């Protein structure tokens, strides 16, 4: 029971990060019906920028608490990723908006590879360690252990997801986003600036990705120019699992995927008689993707499909 509870906690923490990244996929798809495969690399850029700022502050030996240094890194990563997200939409996707669907898909893969190589040129091939500046507090609950960092990741993820739901449901921008997703041409006739709405969607998703990138690097203690590829695939799997195009579905899919992956890592050794270890946990994410695509392509909560003229 202790192992189950521990893996459940680990899965929820991991799933909350997947959910944040998956929201970027699902918002873009809901409006443009485009899979932005470069979104994982935006997450990676956020982690790299934050670690660059954090490393510079730590190296300068400024007298600031660790949490403040990390916060400054996050505050640097968010605008950097927002600018990057806007640039990707404006330069790579907007000219192809009326092109065949295969064109923007290939472009997204190309942008992903481009960002990986740019990050490799700037920060190198080596792994970058997250400085041990955060307090290492732990709490015990029902035989399981949860760290202060895990609690912070969970709480911040919940706050950001709740803020996004309020933005979409209760604000003028949210109404414009929903109108654009349902019927973009009609929304344009009603005075909605479609280009601005799409750009803001990329910007918001990129801001969430920046925070998720810092969370991942702090949780695992490292960052790498290639880290966004697998993280992006898993977040895409979470979006498909919940129902891509559906914000609630992205959150549900991310949490479920994190729990499934964590439980698999905890029990795969026992289930296979020691043949497979916990390092095979990535298998579960893609096994879930295959099952969802075969048996329920629309995802658990279905896909919100707009009337496209």
Briefly summarize what is shown.
The protein is mostly helical. The protein has helices at residues 2-32, 39-59, 66-93, 102-123, 148-170, 172-182, 184-189, 194-220, 227-242, 247-271, 282-295; strands at residues 128-129, 138-141, 144-147, 222-223. The chain has 11 helices and 4 strands; from the N terminus they run ααααβββααααβααα.
Description:
The chain is mostly helical and 309 residues long. The chain is 72% helix and 4% strand. It contains 11 helices and 4 strands. The chain has helices spanning 2-32, 39-59, 66-93, 102-123, 148-170, 172-182, 184-189, 194-220, 227-242, 247-271, 282-295, and strands spanning 128-129, 138-141, 144-147, 222-223. Strands 1-4 form a two-stranded antiparallel sheet. Strands 2-3 form a two-stranded antiparallel ribbon. Strand 2 and strand 3 form a beta hairpin. Helix 1 (2-32) packs antiparallel against helix 8 and helix 2 (39-59) crosses helix 9. The chain starts with a helix and ends in a 14-residue tail after the last helix.
